[in-house]
């Protein structure tokens, strides 16, 4: 009772103080303040996931998987299919969780059942739709990764109606033309595709090569830094096609894996210069990824019906690594692909040559 009175008093005070729309704040039942009271429901969700899903605010496997899930839910959307009179999917609608029996069986969703199963009970105990939860968990999770931008979050996605159709999620063995066409279908330019792939700086693979689970795509999978764009440009070798590891490229760094799709996007004339532009530009990495994720998170949704609750997302810490070549390597180990601008000269890590550690399973 006293708490309720206090918060009423706080609301009154903030209204008096502001004497205009911009400064008006609402105090939530738990004492947090927001500019739109509809966003209050998110604080208990955030506390629960930070404590019980992300182990107190880490940028570990559950964050990586939650970020991957934002993509695999959202990309299940195809205006091209709709134009053919077919169901094109609902985009960022939570269908991957609600219709998990269908969507987790898609080949490209291999391994996604893990995080779907882990997220389900969180959704069940809060007042939030699966579509909102997936994007919220992704944005909060990414905020735990030093160097990340503070992602936007809009609230209010309705329940999904139907499972997404198969074959809309890109595969690592798809060629660049196919990948760019798939993203163009949902409104992303080649530059925006490169920006979205910054996500692979906080990422590892369990299933591309099942003999080496947790193998990261860069040497700093707990940081949202630019190392992914540097290390994918190192000279690598295509994994022998007969090995069964379709979509895998050997990185010269021991303990690191490279997706064939990332390798090709880093070298294709349509994307190589944009790829290279992120190598030593943390500010661009942040702003471009933030903008591209804002689009991804609302695919298939009517943005006018959503509420902007971005202010609820925590502000990430700055990255504590500086763009560098891994120890033991030098500029000659870079495979120059951009034809108009030389690859930036970077200092090499002075430390001893080590192998990259796997991301520990959660
Ligand atoms: C060309 C498009 C893409 C392809 C082919 C692709 C493919 C893959 C593959 C094969 C894995 C490894 C899964 C496993 O074996 O465990 C992976 C991991 C991951 N992907 Fe992508 N991806 C693409 C785009 C994206 C985008 C747009 C995002 C997010 C915005 C994303 C986020 C992630 C994350 C965070 C992981 C790491 C998951 C973990 O560590 O558990 N990917 N991706
Ligand atoms: C889908 O989720 C339910 C729990 O809600 C679970 O029992 C079932 O095994 C899941 N299906 C797949 C294919 O993972
Ligand atoms: C890319 O893949 C598509 C679909 O698998 C195929 O039709 C096309 O010929 C391929 N293009 C190139 C350049 O290999």
TrEMBL record:
CDD domains linked: ligninase
Keywords of the record: Calcium, Disulfide bond, Glycoprotein, Heme, Iron, Lignin degradation, Metal-binding, Oxidoreductase, Peroxidase, Signal
Residue ranges of every copy of the Plant heme peroxidase family profile domain listed in the record: 67-342
A molecular-function term among this protein's GO annotations: peroxidase activity
Site (Transition state stabilizer): 68
PROSITE patterns the UniProt entry points to: PEROXIDASE_1 (PS00435), PEROXIDASE_2 (PS00436), PEROXIDASE_4 (PS50873)
Cofactor names: heme b; Ca(2+)
Protein name: Peroxidase
Highest classification ranks of the organism: Eukaryota, Fungi, Dikarya, Basidiomycota, Agaricomycotina
């Amino acid at each position: 009772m006293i708490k309720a009175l206090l918060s009423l008093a706080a609301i009154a005070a903030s209204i008096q103080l502001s004497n205009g729309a911009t400064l008006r704040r609402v105090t939530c039942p738990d004492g947090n303040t927001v500019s739109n009271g509809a966003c209050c429901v998110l604080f208990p969700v955030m506390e629960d996931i930070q404590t019980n899903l992300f182990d107190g605010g880490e940028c570990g496997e559950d964050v990586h998987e939650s970020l991957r899930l934002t993509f695999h839910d959202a990309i299940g959307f195809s205006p091209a299919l709709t134009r053919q009179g077919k169901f094109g999917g609902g985009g960022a609608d939570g269908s991957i969780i609600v219709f998990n029996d269908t969507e987790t069986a898609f080949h490209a969703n291999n391994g996604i059942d893990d995080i779907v199963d882990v997220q389900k009970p969180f959704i069940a105990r809060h007042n939030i739709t699966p579509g909102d939860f997936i994007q919220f968990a992704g944005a909060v999770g990414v905020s735990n990764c030093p160097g990340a931008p503070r992602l936007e979050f809009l609230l209010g996605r309705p329940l999904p109606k139907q499972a997404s159709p198969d074959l809309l999620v890109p595969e690592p063995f798809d060629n660049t033309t196919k990948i760019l066409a798939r993203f163009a279908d949902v409104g992303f330019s080649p530059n925006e595709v490169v920006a979205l792939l910054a996500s692979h700086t906080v990422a590892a693979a369990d299933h591309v090569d099942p003999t080496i689970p947790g193998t990261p795509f860069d040497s700093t999978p707990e940081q949202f830094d630019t190392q992914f764009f540097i290390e994918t440009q190192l000279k690598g070798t295509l994994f022998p096609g007969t090995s069964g590891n379709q979509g895998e490229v050997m990185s010269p760094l021991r303990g690191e894996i490279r997706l064939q799709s990332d390798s090709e996007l880093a070298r294709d004339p349509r994307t190589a210069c944009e790829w290279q532009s992120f190598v030593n530009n943390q500010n661009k990495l942040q702003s471009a990824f933030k903008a591209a994720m804002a689009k991804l998170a609302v695919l298939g949704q009517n943005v006018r019906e959503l509420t902007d609750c971005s202010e609820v997302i925590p502000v990430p810490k700055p990255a504590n690594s500086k763009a560098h070549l891994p120890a033991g390597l030098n500029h000659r180990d870079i495979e120059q692909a951009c034809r108009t601008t030389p690859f930036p000269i970077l200092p090499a890590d002075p430390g001893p040559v080590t192998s990259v550690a796997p991301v520990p399973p959660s």
